[in-house]
Amino acid sequence: MNGVRGRLRALARGMLLAALIVPAGAARCGEPAAADAGQAIFQRGLVGSGEPLEAVHQDGVRLHGAAAACINCHRRSGLGSKEGNNTIPPITWRYLVHPRARTAEDLDIPYVPGMRTDREPYTEALLARAVRDGIDSEGKPLGNLMPRYALGDADMAALTGYLKRLDQRRPSGAADTVLHFATIITPDADPVKRAGMLDVLRHYFADKNAFPFGATPPLRSTRKMMFMVNRRWELHVWELKGPPDTWHEQLRQDLARQPVLAVVSGLGGRNWAPVHDFCEEEAVPCLFPNVEVPVETDHDFYSVYFSKGVLLESDLIAKRILDEAGARPAAKAVKTVWQVYRAGDNGERGAQALAAALKGRGFAVSNHALAPGDSVARALHRMPRDDVLVLWLRPPDIAALDHVPPVSDTVFMSGLLGGLDNTPLPPGWRGVTRIAYPFDLPEGRRVRVDYAFGWFTIRQIPMVAPQVQADTYLACGLLAETLSHLVDAFVREYLVERIQDMLERRILTGYYPRLTLAPGQRFASKGGYIVRFAGPDRMKLSADGGWTVP
Fold it and tell me: Phi and psi dihedrals of 546, rounded to 5?
């Protein structure tokens, strides 16, 4: 378990481990309006007046504000979580007020780990007593890690109302016999990658539907076995058209025609932000889309990515440039960086991020944007050889360097844009060029990707974009594995939370050495390599240093 995840888990346990009554979430909200007071308490630890929520443990430790928010344990869904022997129970209204039952099979609510069956139901008054005084519905003390909250009547009513609203969610795309999913493709997406991604998705869904299905009653988990309703998977391809400012309305209409449980995979070009924003606004999980420049934010929830893509590459290059400059005598340190990219392409975003990282550290950055028809040779004309050159270019421009001798002894290039292992970098450039590589090395990932590649071969799927297709297959596998643990609790927020919880235990992680998503994190792979060409023929990629998390 990584350090961030461990600290968050420890904080959660220390705040509400034995809790049974206080809600959970995490959101981007403005100052709480009266109608959102319950949500603000639940998600942000703010009471109706805008003041921090106050709580205290039995041992006298005080919590306030975000540290006291219910979300830290009960999660955004309100359905709690389970880690090892520690269980956080669900606290949406129907789980609080259900009648006493002998087993989960006797209940008419979806099974989730930690649900209590053998206790008296809560009322609004009993809930208020539990929150304020730590006494459960049967008059017994709650666990000693459950804080006691200082909530007035108005705030308590707002919190209770929010717990009730958590049971009144939008249509989730789950019917009695079918689960609906979408994949989204932007108009400027690479057509070769599009074909490869859709080939994988359609074959995967066909495989999932290869067994007979029928309307079956929801079966519950017992101590020995877990069952779930068998449902067919249906894929809806939402292909966007026109300019980005029209995409939100197109997606709104698509979702209105057919609600979906989640968006799986997907393919973007230069601008994924409208899709990301739509998924956040409509509360639809967007699971691992294939995009070179994902949306960076510290407050969104529904969109998760395998990595930061080109933005991670810029971080890797910046760290290497700064480390090497710091290791040299001041008089010999390189202080100027030239960047070359096509105007309007994703390399421009990488160049902007790298410039921002270096300019504050005493570097001069010279950016050279190529307009349509401009040659790379022209951008490199008169570049001082002692400067660092960074290339944010696609394979056709990389191949065009065959007509230009290396103009610098220190060259970096984007692996994602330049073709990764199959980059057409000319032989004359391979001795001076290093590549930002946000994946595991080929020999390191071979076993992890062989299963997917073997499946492609059996299904006769042409490998036209191996990394995109492997990521698409991985996204489908993660979805299937997570759904098997949801049983029949098809709640969008719960789906994202279960992916977060389960991801670090995944063994087959494709191109990535390790994937983790702690609460609040959006990027599952955090690092990468700087690689160079090795061997007598300079054809093999070799790590120029260890795996780096910048």
Answer: -85, 175
Q: Which residues lie closer than 8 Å to 128 by C-beta, 6 or more apart? A: 151, 156, 160
Is residue 134 scored above 60 in pLDDT? Answer: yes
Single-letter amino acid, residue 530: I
| Secondary element (H or E) of residue 157 | helix 153-165
Give the C-alpha separation, 467 to 528, whole Å.
Answer: 15
- The one-letter amino acid code at 119 reads R
- Give the integer Cα–Cα distance in Å for 307 and 450: 21
Q: Write the single-letter amino acid at 15.
A: M
**Bridge partners (DSSP) listed for residue 261:** none
In this structure, is residue 232 part of a structural domain?
A: yes
Residues 32 and 156 in one domain: yes
With 50 as the cut, is the pLDDT of residue 6 above it? no
Dihedral angle at the C-alpha atoms of 479, 85, 122, 489, nearest 10 degrees?
Answer: 10
Strands ordered across the beta sheet of 62-64: 62-64, 54-56, 148-149
Cα 193 → chain centroid: 21
pLDDT at 331: 58
The tens digit of pLDDT for each residue in 189-239 reads 999 999 999 999 999 999 999 975 555 555 444 433 444 557 999 999 999
User: Is the domain of 412 the same as that of 360?
Assistant: yes
Residue 537 and residue 390 share a domain = yes
- For the chain, the 3-state helix, strand and coil shares in percent, each to the nearest 5, are 40, 15, 45
Q: Is 304 helix (H, G, I), strand (E, B) or coil?
A: strand
Beta bridge partners of 86: 83
Residue of 255, 85, 265, 177 lying closest to 490 (CA atoms): 177
Burial group, residue 175, by CB count within 10 angstroms (0-12, 13-18, 19+) = middle
Give me the amino acid identity at 501: D
Does 89 score more than 70 pLDDT? yes
Measured distance CA(51)–CA(10) in Å, rounded: 25
Task: List the one residue out of 194, 195, 175 whose CA is nearest residue 185.
Answer: 194
The answer on 448 and 420 residing in a single domain is no
Residue type at 191?
Answer: P
| Domain end position, chosen among 123, 140, 165 | 165
Which strand (E) or helix (H) includes residue 354?
A: helix 346-359
Measured distance between the N- and C-terminal CA atoms of the chain, rounded to whole angstroms: 18
> In terms of domains, do 537 and 419 share one?
yes
Tens digits of residue pLDDT in 433-481: 999 999 999 999 999 999 999 999 999 999 999 999 999 999 999 999 9
Name residue, tokens 């519905």.
137
3-state secondary structure of 192: helix
- Residue keyed to tokens 């932007």: 186
Separation CA 513–CA 439 (nearest Å): 7
Q: Per the structure, how many domains does the chain have?
A: 3
Q: At 345, which CATH number?
A: 3.40.50.2300
Residue 480, domain extent? 178-307+443-503
